[in-house]
Sequence to fold (630 residues):
Amino acid sequence: MTKSDRVLTAEMIAEIQALFPRYPLRQAVTLPALHVVNRHLRHVPLQAVVEIAELLQLAPAQVQDTLTFYGFFKQDAPHGRTRAWVCRSISCALRGGEEMLEYLCQKAGIPAGDTTPDGALTLEPAECLGACEHAPCMLAGDRLHKNLDRDAADQFLRSVRSNAVETGESVS
Amino acid sequence: MADFEPVLLANIHLPDSHTFDVYEGKGGYRALRKTMRELKPVDVIEMVKASGLRGRGGAGFPTGLKWTFLPKDHPGPVYFLLNADESEPGTFNNRILMEEDPHQILEGLILSCFATRATAAYIYLRYEYPLALERMQRAVDECYRARYLGANILGSGYSLDVTLHRGAAAYICGEETGLIESLEGKRAWPRIKPPFPAVEGVFRKPTVVNNVETAACVTQIMSRGSDWFKSIGVPPPADNPRDAGSYGPKLYCLSGHIERPGCYEAPLGITVRQLVDQYGGGVWRGRKAKAAIPGGISMGLLREDEFDCPLDFSGPGRYGCLGLGTAAVVILDETVSIMDYLYNSARFFAHERGGQCPPCREGTSWALKILERIRAGRGRLKDLDLLAEIAGSIGIIPGTTICGLADGAAWPMKNALSKFREECEETIKRTNPKGWMVTDPVPALEAGITVHELKAVH
Fold:
């Protein structure tokens, strides 16, 4: 492994190391470290797992074991620039959540779980987003879309296409 | 209930209610300052015990008693974990508290840590709450600046550090030992108990795990007194002296087919019907209710004629439900098919089970497959027996699993099959007129084939 093949940048390493004093055991930094890498790379490739394991003084298998349990971190390819979760649990389902997911998938031209070919959007079903009073709802990046309907879905897709990346700054 | 004054939600409608200045301006942190000046940890434990506070996360274990399980002369450290992994379908009360009144939670957290002599606290916050994360982090930072956190808090000699720890979208992390494993950086597989966390928890040290709303209640108890807390709610039923009673205000989440969904604060013991009529504005679109989930999807189902069920710790159990759970009430109107509800519930549990205990792992998967087959028009009455068999054999109650997730998966099936048997049978007969009576084993749906494709084939 040459230096150029490594995926963790100095910035990511510094972010991870800054968390060490907060925990008595380094293994506890596993999930925070995965989040750091995921925030930067939008996925956590196997090589990143190896490098996280080095930092945390663990076997790569220990980090990989944790990563795969959560099903949250993509490994093979980055998720879209916007990652959207459409809630399908009971309160949203009663208010049309499943239909909204189907509608969004159809409009975006991808099955649930996939990313659009231009890399702009990943659409995923979510289990309860904990915003049941706003059902049906969707979490896109850091923004909660409440009382989703077709118009709001269309508008969301337009904003994604025009490359407006969903960030935490527009939390409403 | 009209004379009941909200306490936990008293300030959430104020502008900038999430900020330190607004919280202190409304009298916040007074209880903390008084406690640090005048009280000992044991005094706080005694007050919380006397209040009758039971944990708000779902299990309803008496909070003060939980604290006393910590070993007396342990050299430390003791850890305190705030369970903010709220993920039970229908539940959002913790989110509202964290977004709108994070300091009320932090004050309770600091008081609880002082009582239990914990020197480090972790707030395990579910991934799906970015705004709650932002506001809780800001609140923690503000507390450090005010010297309510850090070394030698307010000159008391007591020190506490608080760290926010973000989850990764897994329901099982809300189980307290699953949460501990997850915090340690491992898969969130719940532990076999004993040892209980109080004896050996996170990092193999004594640990307390409490829910967000529980912490907010501690703030109010220390501010208003245990007698005040115990004056709200209902005492134990006369025929069950082992019941610890249901005291204090409770945050009820109301969603589904309801006119005004939302989080409402009411005394423990309000009935489903009162909640729907007095707070929720009735069933939506003037329809009739068919059923209600009493406390998150795990708790099972109440029929409309059972809506006088009091939502206290023992009420839903008397109506055949698993318990009060998170007090998240979801209304199903008359148009909802019970099979659709069952399918939604089974899909959730098959997706969210930890996979550690075979009865749950296999049971939840097979329940989902059977319900998928019924939805595809190939159900048989025999399938209802199979579902009942699964429901009766997975969980802590039959003794086959480590954690209670499987009991939560079982209860919707149990309640639906007993309370809506006729409808379940009718649905199967209607959707599979030729094959509903078959009792021989039949194959599961072909792997990879969707219900949609299957309908196209047949």
Residues 246-333 of chain B form a domain with the Ubiquitin-like (UB roll) fold (CATH 3.10.20.600). DSSP finds 18 helices and eleven strands in chain B. The two ends of chain B are 55 Å apart (CA to CA).
